[in-house]
Design a protein that fits this description.
The protein contains 11 helices and 11 strands. With about 325 residues, the protein is an alpha+beta fold. The strands form 3 sheets. Strands 1-2-3-6-5 form a 5-stranded antiparallel sheet. Helix 6 runs parallel beside helix 10, helix 8 packs across helix 10 and helix 10 packs antiparallel against helix 11. The radius of gyration is 21 Å and the shape is globular.
Length: about 325
């Protein structure tokens, strides 16, 4: 693995032999994949050290690794004209026998760090611009279509798990939420499907003060672009509450994202945007109930409340 990583960034056999290595597990999704950052340090003849970093994504199925690698290459071509300050880490190499994709490593920290530190709105505006361009690009080959029926089945499963884990089972709140969101889905206007990220949020955006990196295209599909926008906005609310105690703490940044998105993609989402925002709050409630961080019950209850408020507001706007 180490020689392959060294070769991927252009080191020859001798340089690979002399380099120092360090590894760091970034994320682990049991039964699916884990991600490792490899750091390489190479001492030059003047005594200095050149440092390199490579990301290795290990998949349990080699066919998945191959599909991800080909998609990343295709995305590089499709999005060649996207905003110059936004990059997708280039795929460097595929190790098919090991089920590994090697990628460039983005410098910086995830966008949530910038928000928590009171950074400016530039990365949020760039995120909106990039997502609009992404949604307008031709989909890469062989993507699955994720219908609203598919998303409703996932959402219903999350609600059942939340009800199972909450002390009172969620009571009538989850029942009302279920009915409201299903009614909203039935009221969807016709929409043109697009290539969607399906996991677009602050932790998959890396900001170094100048360049924004977009990560993790494993869930890439064809579906409703409102999903990516609602997913991003709901995660901002969740981050704001967890870090400041105020759900609207990052509202100005959210508006910068929205303005930038719709400046380049004037699609009318209608009730689809509040639906997918509420859908994501349900997802966050489910993840909270499963992972059980400190204070998880109150946080899960908050996400149920936010989903219900979003859904009810949208439903009141269209109900005769």
């Amino acid at each position: 693995m180490i020689p392959s990583g060294a070769a991927a960034i252009g080191l020859d056999r001798e340089q690979s032999r002399r380099a120092n290595y360090a590894t760091e597990v970034i994320s682990h999704k049991p039964g699916n994949r884990y991600t490792i950052r490899y750091r390489l340090g190479l001492r030059d003849t003047a005594g200095g050290v050149r440092e390199f970093a490579v990301i290795g994504k290990f998949y349990t199925e080699a066919s998945v690794a191959a599909a991800v690698y080909l998609r990343l290459r295709a995305l590089q071509e499709r999005l060649a004209d996207s905003p110059g300050q936004v990059v997708i880490p280039a795929p460097l190499s595929l190790l098919p026998d090991l089920g590994i994709v090697l990628q460039e490593c983005c410098a910086g920290a995830d966008l949530g760090h910038s928000l928590r530190m009171g950074g400016d709105d530039r990365p949020l505006s760039l995120a909106g611009q990039w997502l609009a361009a992404f949604h307008k690009a031709a989909p890469v080959p062989e993507l699955e279509v994720k219908s609203i029926e598919h998303e409703l089945r996932k959402m219903d499963g999350w609600m059942r798990e939340i009800a199972h884990r909450l002390p009172d089972g969620g009571g009538s709140r989850l029942s009302r939420l279920h009915d409201t969101l299903h009614r909203l889905a039935e009221a969807f206007p016709d929409s043109a499907p697009a290539m969607i990220h399906r996991d677009f949020y602050h932790q998959n955006l890396i900001w170094d003060g100048e360049i924004l990196g977009v990560l993790d295209f494993d869930q890439l599909a064809v579906g409703d672009p409102a999903m990516d926008v609602g997913h991003f906005l709901a995660h901002l609310v969740g981050l704001a509450y967890r870090k400041t105690g105020q759900a609207d703490a990052f509202a100005a940044g959210a508006q910068s994202f929205i303005r930038s998105y719709f400046a380049l993609n004037a699609t009318e989402f209608g009730v689809r945007l509040p639906f997918f925002t509420a859908y994501t709050f349900v997802k966050l409630g489910y993840q909270t109930a499963v992972r059980k961080p400190s204070g998880w019950r109150d946080l899960a209850e908050l996400f149920i409340h936010l989903a219900g408020a979003e859904g009810e507001h949208a439903w009141r706007g269209i109900r005769p």
